[in-house]
Amino acid sequence: MKVGNMIRHVSGDFPFFSYKLFQPYDEILSVVSTRLGGVSPIPYHSLNLGFSVGDERAHVIENRTRYCQAVDVDIQNVTVGHLIQGTHIEIVTVREKGRGAVDPETGLPGTDGMITNTPNIALLLLVADCAAITFYDPKRHVLGLGHGGWRGTVGGIARKVITRMNEVFDCNPADLLIGVSPSIGPCCYQVRDDVIQAFQQAYPAHASQFFVPQPDGTVHLDVWTALRWQLLDSGILPEHIEFASICTACHTDLFYSYRAEKGKTGRFGALVMLVNR
To answer: Over the stretch 210-224, which tens digit does the pLDDT of each residue have?
Structure first.
C-alpha cells in the first residue's frame, strides 16, 4: 500500500523512507526512520530513537545503532540537538561531530536547527508529530535540519534556517531543496485558542490560511500549509518543496504520534549527511 509521497526502502527487516526530490544527488543521504525494526517494548515499540521519553537507554542506543547500520552511517559521526520547541540554530563542524549520539548529556543544548557543510557528519532530528524539515543546497553543498512543531513554525524556524544558511554559507534560497517529513496533518491536529492567537499575532495577514474549522466547532491547525507559506515567502521555489504528506496520527502503525498515543510514545528520526563519494 502506498503511503504519502516518499520512497519506501527496506534494509533487511528495517524500513525507512527517502524523498524523491533528493534522488538525483549522490552527495547526500537524507532518510526518515519509522517505528519498526527496533528492540523497545510497548509503548515505545519498537524503534524508539529518543532518550527523553522513558525508554531504557540501552534500547535507544541499540535502535540508533540499527538505524545507522541500515543506512550505512557510523553512529560516532551522528550529531543530535536537544530540542526545546525553539528556533536556535547551530552550525555543526568537526568539533560537534558525534555529540548526543550515544550520550544524551553531550547533545547540542537548546537546539532546534542544525546546519553543516562538512562531509560525513550526520545530523539527526527526532520527532513524534512535529515536522523534521530538511534543507539542501546542491550548489554550495550545505545541509540543514529544522524542527517544525507549532511553536517553531510560529517562531519562523524554516525562515531562520534559510537565513542562517545564506549568512554563513552564501546559500541562495532559490537554490535550496526542501523535504518535510511525516508529521501530524490538518485532519488530526485540533488546537486551542492559545495556538490560534500565537499564529494570528505572528502572521496577522496570513494566519487564516493555516486553520481548518471543523463541523463540531473545533479548529485544526494545518502546519503543512503554514510551513509551505513560510518556505515560499522565504524565496524557496514551489517545485523545490516536497512534503511527505503522511499524517503521523493517522499512521501510528508506521510512525510515532504524541497526540494519537496520548503522550506516551517514542520518537522517529530524520537523518541527513553529506557523503564523500
So the answer is: 999 999 999 999 999
Q: What gap in Å lies between CA 127 and CA 269, rounded to an integer? A: 6
Handedness of CA 152, 155, 158, 164 (dihedral sign): negative
Q: Is the pTM of this model over 0.85?
A: yes
Among candidate residues 174, 161, 167, 172, the one with its CA nearest the CA of residue 227? 161
Q: Are 52 and 104 in contact (CB under 8 A)?
A: yes
Dihedral of alpha carbons 54, 57, 58, 62, sign: positive
For residues 203 and 17, what is the distance between their CA atoms, to the nearest angstrom? 32
| C-alpha–C-alpha distance, residues 147 and 114, integer Å | 9
Q: Which three cell numbers stand for residue 111?
A: 537546539
What is the structure's pLDDT at 50? Answer: 98
Burial (CB < 10 A; 0-12, 13-18, 19+), residue 11, is middle
Asked whether 248 and 256 are in contact (CB, 8 A), the reply is yes
270 contacts 127 by C-beta, under 8 angstroms: yes
Instruction: Give the pLDDT confidence of 4-60 residue by residue, as tens digits.
Output: 789 999 998 899 999 999 999 999 999 999 999 999 999 999 999 999 999 999 999
Which of 129, 127, 122, 70 is closest to 101 using CA atoms? 122
C-alpha cell read off for 53: 521519553
C-alpha cell at 69: 547500520
Are 25 and 138 in contact by the 8 Å Cβ rule? The answer is yes
Mean pLDDT lowest among 5-9, 54-58, 130-134, 184-188? 5-9
Domains along the chain with CATH numbers: 7-186+241-274 (3.60.140.10)
Residue closest to 60 by CA, chosen among 95, 28, 102? 102
Q: Which helix (DSSP H) or strand (DSSP E) does residue 57 occupy?
A: helix 57-70
